[in-house]
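Q: what sequence does this backbone want?
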C-alpha cells in the first residue's frame, strides 16, 4: 500500500488542477500498470467526488478518531495522534504535502458521511474513472447509457435504485425514460434532473463554468443549495453555471456540444474566437492568437477523425492571411487579417 501512497501527491495535483503534463503521463502509466493501481485511484477520486455533496455540519466531533479510520483505509501502519482542538491533522507520510490539505477536507467530510449517513452506503458505490485521452461507455443498471470523456469521474450507488449519479468532468447521457423515477446528475453545486432525454454535461473542477447542452427532450437544471430559479432547457439550449459569480443562466445554442463523442467538428461561418476554445477542448491543447483581429475571422468546414494539424492546414487554405506555428508545445496563430 505504501507504493500507492507515493502517488497521492500526483492524484492530489490532478484533482486540484495543478498536474503538469509530465506528471499526468506518469500518473496515467502507473494507473494503467495494474488493476490494483486503478482501484486505488478510483477510491481516492470517489472520496473527492463525495466531498462536493456534504458541508461542514457533517464533520464529526471526534475528528482525530474519524481521521484515523480513513488513515487505516489508506495505510494500515499510519497513526495519527489525537488532538483535542478542532483541526485536521495531516497524515504523516512522505511526498504528501500537496495532497494533505485536499485529503484532510475529503477525510473529514467522507468520514462524517460514513458516521452520520450509513444508509447511503447500504449499497456499495460504483466509480468509473477515465484517464487523459481515454473515453468510456457505461451501461447503467436502468438501461441508460453514459459516454464518459477523458479525465472524468462518475460515481453512483451500485443498486441504482435512486437513479442518481455524481459527475466530475464531461459526459454525454442517453437516459431511459421512467416517469416515476427522475434521473439526477450532481456536478458540484449544479443539479440536472430529467425523465428521459439526451444531453451533455461539462463540469471539470478546474474550469470556472459548468455547462449543460440539450440534444433531445427536456432538461431541468438548478442550484439547490442557493435556492435559485430552475431553468428548463429544450433541444439546442444550453445552461451555464458560473462558479465564481454563482450565477445560473441560459446560453446561446451550443456549438459542437458532443464533438468529443462523435469525433466530428462542424463549423458554419464560426468566428475563430468560438472555434479556438472548441479545438483546445477537443485536442486538449493550447492555442494562442498573436493578433486579436484574427479572432473575428469566420471559418466554415467540417471534420471527422481528423488531426489538429489537418484542421490547421484547411484553416490556412481558407483564410490566407493566417499562419499557424507550433512553439514550445503550443500553437500560435499570427497574421494581419483574413483574406
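A:
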Amino acid at each position: 500500500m505504501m507504493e500507492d501512497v507515493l502517488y497521492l501527491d500526483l492524484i492530489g495535483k490532478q484533482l486540484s488542477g495543478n498536474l503538469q503534463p509530465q506528471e499526468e503521463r506518469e500518473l496515467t502509466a502507473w494507473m494503467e500498470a495494474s488493476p490494483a493501481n486503478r482501484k486505488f485511484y478510483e477510491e481516492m477520486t470517489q472520496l473527492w467526488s463525495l466531498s462536493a455533496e456534504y458541508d461542514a455540519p457533517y464533520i464529526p466531533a471526534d475528528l482525530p478518531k474519524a481521521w484515523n479510520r480513513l488513515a487505516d483505509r489508506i495505510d494500515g501502519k499510519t497513526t495519527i495522534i489525537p488532538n483535542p482542538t478542532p483541526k485536521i491533522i495531516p497524515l504523516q507520510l512522505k511526498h504528501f504535502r500537496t495532497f494533505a490539505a485536499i485529503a484532510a477536507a475529503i477525510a473529514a467530510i467522507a468520514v462524517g458521511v460514513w458516521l452520520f449517513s450509513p444508509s447511503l452506503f447500504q449499497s456499495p458505490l460504483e466509480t468509473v474513472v477515465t484517464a487523459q485521452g481515454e473515453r468510456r461507455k457505461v451501461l447503467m443498471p436502468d438501461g441508460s447509457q453514459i459516454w464518459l470523456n477523458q479525465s472524468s469521474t462518475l460515481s453512483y450507488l451500485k443498486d441504482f435504485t435512486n437513479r442518481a449519479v455524481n459527475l466530475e468532468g464531461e459526459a454525454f447521457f442517453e437516459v431511459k425514460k421512467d416517469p416515476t423515477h427522475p434521473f439526477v446528475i450532481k456536478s458540484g453545486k449544479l443539479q440536472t434532473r430529467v425523465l428521459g432525454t439526451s444531453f451533455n454535461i461539462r463540469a471539470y473542477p478546474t474550469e470556472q463554468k459548468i455547462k449543460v447542452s440539450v440534444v433531445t427532450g427536456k432538461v431541468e437544471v438548478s442550484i439547490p443549495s442557493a435556492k435559485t430559479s430552475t431553468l428548463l432547457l429544450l433541444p439546442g439550449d444550453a445552461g451555464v453555471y458560473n462558479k465564481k459569480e454563482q450565477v445560473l443562466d441560459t446560453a446561446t445554442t451550443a456549438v459542437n456540444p458532443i464533438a468529443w463523442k462523435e469525433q466530428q467538428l462542424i463549423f458554419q461561418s464560426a468566428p475563430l474566437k468560438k472555434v479556438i476554445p472548441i479545438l483546445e477542448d477537443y485536442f486538449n491543447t493550447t492555442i494562442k492568437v498573436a493578433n486579436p483581429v484574427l479572432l473575428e475571422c469566420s471559418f466554415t468546414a467540417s471534420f471527422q477523425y481528423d488531426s489538429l494539424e489537418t484542421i490547421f492546414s484547411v484553416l490556412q487554405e481558407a483564410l490566407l492571411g493566417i499562419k499557424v506555428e507550433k512553439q514550445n508545445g503550443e500553437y500560435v496563430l499570427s497574421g494581419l487579417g483574413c483574406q
